[in-house]
Write a structure and sequence with these properties.
The chain has about 140 residues and is mainly alpha-helical. Helix content is about 70%, strand content about 0%. It has eight helices and no strands.
């Protein structure tokens, strides 16, 4: 058995802390951040917020490309949906479509799935870039 700070037998400080559900949640959240790499750092939340706040503005494209370059594709459904509007970045949009379809298969809500299907149908019908149009068509078939 592990020794505590006083040298006696018993539970370690970590073991005692994990018995407290609030502390356990905190420890698990912090541990998860270690495995998230750069997305686990505090500046990531700021950058994601900056991306979300710039949607519909001239700065969105620049912010989106900088975010993806620094962090890769976001893990948040809403941020991924926004990236579908980057028509001049077909490779990125196709990657986003694939990620969204994967996420849709792993428990998204029915309204998220419905919204994705609608967005993909619009891309399939109106997108001038054949690569994006084909990716949307294939994604619809996979859903």
């Amino acid at each position: 058995m592990a020794r505590n700070k006083t040298g006696g037998k018993g539970k370690s400080t970590l073991e005692r802390a994990l018995e407290d559900s609030t502390l356990k949640k905190h420890y698990l959240k912090e541990a998860e951040k270690l495995f998230m790499g750069s997305k686990g750092r505090p500046e990531h939340e700021k950058e994601l917020k900056k991306l979300n706040n710039s949607y519909g503005k001239k700065s969105f494209r620049k912010n989106a490309l900088e975010y993806v370059k620094k962090y890769g594709l976001p893990g948040e459904w809403g941020a991924l949906i926004m990236l579908l509007d980057l028509k001049d970045a077909p490779d990125l949009v196709c990657d986003v479509i694939d990620r969204l379809v994967d996420m849709a298969g792993n428990g998204c809500t029915s309204s998220e799935r419905s919204g994705l299907e609608s967005k993909l149908q619009i891309l399939e019908m109106t997108e001038p870039d054949p690569e994006i149009q084909e990716a949307a068509q294939e994604a619809l078939a996979r859903l």
